[in-house]
């Protein structure tokens, strides 16, 4: 039978409960051990405190005999001293001290058996100042002791009493049982309170996890607007919730871009298909003859479809696990001039001037090389030129410039493409190179052209980053958009 898996809250509660139970067992065990070990010395202290009469007798015996020698040599004297004779036992608190009475040394008849040894005599003894036994039992660790002094207050020895080996009296056992019961009940009550506290703490500490689970389930159900409120209980959970919300925002942005791109792609596909359908139906109905102009129009629409499908395929390939392109030493400025030459006729037809800055012609004469793939770099330049052509008003211009930056590090080739109005809103500039993004609202397509797929700049960024370069967009001083492309140059170009 497989046991159900515990939640994190259940595991935390179980761990805290087990720890508290172990602590309770240790507390009760050590309390019992302490009571058992501490009760004997305590009882010995109480018993010895009630033997002030014996202390005075021993001090008087020491004064009369001039030392402990007589007590050492005559054991019967020790028994005589321990036997109370009309002595008022002192009670707790101040009480008048009886005067020492004359001691009569017992007459021990040879062959007479000593009196039986009681329990107290086995525990009671006298030691001198050097700790040597004078009479009775030897001192033991944890036993009680009382100082013995002569008439001038000088220390002459100690009266010692060993603790009980066990609980011999019912009162002692009852006292120990009562104290142990108090300890046990205190521990059980403390355990119950601690379990409640641990359950509350586990639920409070791990509550953000339940919130995150609920949020994740909502995200999985497609509710991308879901956000988890941040909590200040834990810095770790705060960072986790912040990361979760950032992920949700990114997913919402990607989903919005995906929906927009799907709509734009459907529109792009539908427009040439609708035009082709109209042309074909007009030919079928005999309204329009199938002549050279009709064939060119159909061919132009087919080429737009091919371009759109090619951009989609390229975007998918570059985002996937395609093998890296073959790299070699290539001349980027020669590829750029070749792309500009190929696009010149289209710029002329659109009415947009394509101009190369003087520094571009000067640098083109130098053997500037980068480690890259010529086909991909040529595609980058074509896409950038195509983007400016599509989104620049007729009568405008596109100016291409270049420079080499060194700044104490490896040389870098920087290309700038500046076009004229219309421009791009500042808040849209950081998103131009994102896949599936097009700034339709602020940068209208020129000459009625319905534009590309919104993937051209994203493809450019992927290729440039694969070549170790950077590409970014900013406002152009000409009133339109500036694209800045930077590529690392080879320090020792091959001839």
UniProtKB/TrEMBL annotation:
Alphabetically list the UniProt keywords: Kinase, Membrane, Phosphoprotein, Transferase, Transmembrane, Transmembrane helix, Two-component regulatory system
Q: Does the keyword Heme apply?
A: no
A Gene Ontology cellular component where this protein is annotated is:
plasma membrane
Could you tell me which residue ranges the Histidine kinase domain spans? 264-491
What reactions does this protein catalyze?
Answer: ATP + protein L-histidine = ADP + protein N-phospho-L-histidine
Location relative to the cell: Membrane
Coiled coil feature spans: none
The record ties this protein, via Pfam families, to: HAMP, HATPase_c, HisKA
Membrane-crossing segments per the record: 12-33, 182-202
Record GO terms (molecular function):
phosphorelay sensor kinase activity
Q: Which Gene3D superfamilies match?
A: 1.10.287.130, 6.10.340.10, Histidine kinase-like ATPase, C-terminal domain (3.30.565.10)
Protein name, UniProt field:
histidine kinase
User: Where do the HAMP domain residues begin and end?
Assistant: 203-256
């Amino acid at each position: 039978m497989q046991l159900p898996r515990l939640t994190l809250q259940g595991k935390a509660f179980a761990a805290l409960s087990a720890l508290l139970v172990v602590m309770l067992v240790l507390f009760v065990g050590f309390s019992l051990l302490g009571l058992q070990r501490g009760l004997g010395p305590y009882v010995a202290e109480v018993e010895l405190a009630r033997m002030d009469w014996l202390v005075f007798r021993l001090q008087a015996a020491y004064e009369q005999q001039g030392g402990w020698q007589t007590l050492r040599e005559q054991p019967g004297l020790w028994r005589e001293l321990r036997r109370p004779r009309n002595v008022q036992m002192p009670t707790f608190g101040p009480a008048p001290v009886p005067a020492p009475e004359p001691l009569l040394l017992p007459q021990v008849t040879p062959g007479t058996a000593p009196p039986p040894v009681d329990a107290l005599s086995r525990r009671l003894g006298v030691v001198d100042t050097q700790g040597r036994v004078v009479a009775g039992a030897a001192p033991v660790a944890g036993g009680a002791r009382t100082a013995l002094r002569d008439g001038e207050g000088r220390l002459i020895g100690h009266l010692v009493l060993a603790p009980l080996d066990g609980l011999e009296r019912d009162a002692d056992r009852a006292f120990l049982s009562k104290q142990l019961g108090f300890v046990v009940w205190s521990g059980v009550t403390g355990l119950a309170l601690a379990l409640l506290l641990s359950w509350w703490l586990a639920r409070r500490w791990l509550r953000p996890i339940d919130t995150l689970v609920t949020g994740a389930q909502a995200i999985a159900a497609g509710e991308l607007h879901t956000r988890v409120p941040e909590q200040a209980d834990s810095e770790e959970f705060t960072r986790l919730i912040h990361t979760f919300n950032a992920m949700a925002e990114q997913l919402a942005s990607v989903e919005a871009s995906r929906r927009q791109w799907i709509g734009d792609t459907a529109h792009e596909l539908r427009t040439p298909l609708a035009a082709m359908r109209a042309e074909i139906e007009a030919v079928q109905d005999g309204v329009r003859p199938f002549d050279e102009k009709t064939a060119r129009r159909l061919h132009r629409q087919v080429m737009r479809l091919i371009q759109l499908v090619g951009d989609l395929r390229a975007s998918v390939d570059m985002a996937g696990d395609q093998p890296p392109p073959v790299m070699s030493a290539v001349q980027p400025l020669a590829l750029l001039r070749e792309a500009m030459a190929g696009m010149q006729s289209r710029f002329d037809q659109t009415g947009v001037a394509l101009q190369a800055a003087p520094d571009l012609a000067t640098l083109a004469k130098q053997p500037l090389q980068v480690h890259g793939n010529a086909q991909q770099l040529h595609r980058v330049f074509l896409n950038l030129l195509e983007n400016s052509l599509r989104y620049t008003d007729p009568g405008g211009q596109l100016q291409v410039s270049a420079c080499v930056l060194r700044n104490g590090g490896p040389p870098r080739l920087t290309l700038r493409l500046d076009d004229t109005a219309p421009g791009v809103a500042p808040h849209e500039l950081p998103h131009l190179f994102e896949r599936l993004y097009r700034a339709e609202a602020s940068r209208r397509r020129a000459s009625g052209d319905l534009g590309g797929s919104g993937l051209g700049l994203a493809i450019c960024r992927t290729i440039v980053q694969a070549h170790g370069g950077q590409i970014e967009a900013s406002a152009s001083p000409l009133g339109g958009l500036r694209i800045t492309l930077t590529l690392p140059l080879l320090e020792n170009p091959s001839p």
